[in-house]
Amino acid sequence: MTISQLLDFMMRHGVLVGLFACSTLALGLLELWRLRRRPATVTPQLLTVMLNRENAYLIDLRDAAQFREGHIAGAHHVNPERLAEHLQGKKLDGPLILCCHDGTFSATMALEAKQALAGQQPVFILRHGLNGWRQEGLPLVEGKH
Questions:
Q1: Angle subtended at Cα 100 by Cα 96 and Cα 106, rounded to the nearest 5 degrees
Q2: Which residues neighbour 129 within 8 Å (Cβ) at sequence distance 6 or greater?
Q3: Which of 70, 91, 124, 143 sits in a 20 to 30 Å window from 30, CA-based?
Q4: Per-residue pLDDT tens digits for 11-41
Q5: What gap in Å lies between CA 121 and CA 103, rounded to an integer?
Q6: Which helix (H) or strand (E) holds 23?
């Protein structure tokens, strides 16, 4: 197809070209919006630094049995259904970090956490969750605390 044929097509089918342009723009804006909502991630190494130096508050969103089997030292177990309730009115001295099994569920819960904190502190998720932590050979604590 030559440029003159393309221009001729566009002149004859202006409505189709306009719909295509609007659809492309809408998809692009939707993708930008989705990317902006994606929470920032921290590596296991950065999490360790944030826990030790920045007073980070770590929440483990896995179920209670998984938490007892092994969790990161200093993590607080919170039932995901009670996350907003747990965070509302809580004064945090550092960033909030969410973790789950592989990071997927934490990412979906991050928006709820941000809303509950009302921008008081930044919210991060642990990249690849406890799987990433284990892959780095980092220690886990057993039991409730």
A1: 55
A2: 99, 100, 101, 102, 103, 104, 105, 106
A3: 124
A4: 888 888 888 888 888 887 777 666 566 689 9
A5: 20
A6: helix 14-37
